[in-house]
Write a structure and sequence with these properties.
The chain has 406 residues and is α/β, with parallel strands linked by helices. It is built from 14 helices and 21 strands. The strands form six sheets. It has an eight-stranded mixed β-sheet with strand order 12-11-8-13-16-17-19-20, sandwiched between helices. Strands 2-1-3-4-5 form a five-stranded parallel β-sheet, with helices on both faces. Strand 16, helix 13 and strand 17 form a beta-alpha-beta unit. Helix 4 packs across helix 7. The structure holds ligand PMT. This is Coenzyme A biosynthesis bifunctional protein CoaBC.
Length: 406
């Protein structure tokens, strides 16, 4: 992915700015040609001379921007760029990019390039969690930018939290795994894609329910990736803390029955169904109308559960030629054998099997690793990568399947 690639590295002001020098070297080791833009704030942490020496290229800064020498440097650099990488990206830089500001060398270069774009945030954990930053992150994703998840760990402030800059080798590994930009495929334009996300809830009474650890991150990332590939996307979502990508039609549901009804109603006019939701396999036979009370007699409470409808199994019977149905398999053992059984039993075109016994991937985390299983027995494992990266790889596979079914 990086061999001979023209990478423009935008460095913003952060305690992690110094790590951008190691990142420039790591990109070069991976075969990339690197040029650098430094924001005014970054220049207070690390000097242009460092990057000029490493890259043997002039460094674009606000000081050297719009000189009266006839060169429009940010446009020249934007046109040269094949991969725009903002790393470390401060909260301010993300806000500039998300809002289309063009008020310095970094933001004008970013706005002017049509290249694939990746942001690697680095900031204080409270700044990362702030609603405005999360809004900007969502906006960037909706605009087709890949935003890598910052690491969780010790921060410069002396406490721990999410916001740490990823290590340069980790960034390069994630870049190597990036799917080609959707526009390069023209992939899913004109296609209607239905994505499900989150963990369904099965009510015991008005204030209690049975559910699972799904955060919805995988499904939301799939919806964003499908939208970036040009699809008309509907996201059916169980309750989550996430904001849906701008432009995606969202259908909120709660129970497995709600999800089944929502999927069944839309499936006939869907080209691709991707079931990333973690669906309850059992539901209480009855849900109490009122809150279940403790009494002196009920030291134990027995719940009777019955199977929920299998949504994927149900749509298999309605499937028309050309429709693509994709499932996920959440497994804690015998990942591939169990995944293969689900692929066959549910008549899927593709199944993404993930090992949910691991703490670093699967439920709730920011990263995942899946093995794509196909009906012909072919298998392909992804690296461990941010869920948006895995989602992009999945959408690339879906686009390939649609092509073969044409
Ligand atoms: O949401 P995150 O925190 O990001 O976590 C992501 C994830 C781990 C939830 C996701 O990657 C994932 O694995 N989703 C599928 C979870 C699941 O329900 O797996 P399963 O092996 O039980 O079911 C297999 C497939 O059948 C799934 O596509 C599921 O959506 C579907 N299913 C399951 C039960 C049911 N009654 N009807 C279904 O259609």
């Amino acid at each position: 992915m990086l061999q001979d690639k023209h990478v423009t590295l935008t460095v913003s002001g952060s305690v992690a700015s110094y790590k951008a020098a190691a990142l420039a070297r790591a990109l070069q080791r991976a075969g990339a040609q690197v040029r650098v833009v430094l924001t005014e704030a970054a220049s207070r942490f690390i000097t242009p001379a460092t990057f000029a020496a490493l890259t043997k290229q002039p460094v674009l800064t606000d000081a050297g921007w719009w000189q009266a020498d006839g060169n429009i440097e940010h446009i020249e650099l934007a046109d040269w760029t094949e991969l725009a990488l903002a790393a470390p990206a401060s909260a301010n830089l993300m806000a500039q990019f998300a809002n289309g500001l063009a008020n310095d060398a970094a933001s004008t270069t970013w706005l002017a390039t049509a290249a694939q774009k990746v942001v690697v945030p680095a900031m204080n954990s409270h700044m990362w969690a702030a609603p405005a930053t999360q809004r900007n992150r969502q906006q960037l994703i909706a605009d087709g930018v890949t935003v890598l998840e910052p690491a969780t760990g010790a921060l410069a402030e002396g406490y721990s939290g999410q916001g740490r800059f990823l290590e340069p080798d980790e960034i390069v590994a994630q870049l190597q795994a990036l799917p080609a930009p959707a526009a390069a495929h023209g992939d899913l334009r004109g296609k209607r894609v239905l994505v499900t996300a989150g963990g369904t809830r099965e009510r015991l009474d008005p204030v209690r329910f049975l559910t699972n650890d799904s955060s919805g991150k995988m499904g939301y990332a799939v919806a964003a990736a499908a939208q970036q590939a040009g699809a008309d996307v509907t996201l059916i979502t169980a309750p989550t803390k996430l904001t849906a990508p701008v432009g995606v039609t969202t259908v909120p549901i709660e129970s497995t029955q709600d999800l089944a009804d929502a999927v069944n109603a839309r499936f006939p006019r869907t080209d691709v169904l991707i079931m990333a939701a973690a669906v309850a396999d059992f539901q209480p036979v009855t849900a109490a109308d009122q809150k279940i009370k403790k009494t002196p007699d009920n030291d134990q409470l027995t719940l009777t559960l019955r199977k929920t409808p299998d949504i994927l199994q149900g749509v298999a019977d309605q499937k028309r030629p050309g429709q693509i149905v994709v499932g996920f398999a959440a497994e804690t053992q015998n990942l591939l054998a169990n995944g293969q059984k689900k692929l066959t039993k549910k008549h899927l075109d593709l199944l993404a099997a993930n090992d949910v016994s691991r703490a670093d991937i699967g439920f709730n985390g920011d990263n995942n690793q899946v093995t794509f299983l196909f009906p012909d027995g072919h298998q392909q494992q992804t690296p461990v990568a941010a869920k948006p990266v895995i989602a992009g790889l999945l959408i690339e596979q879906v686009a390939g399947l649609l092509n073969t079914k044409k």
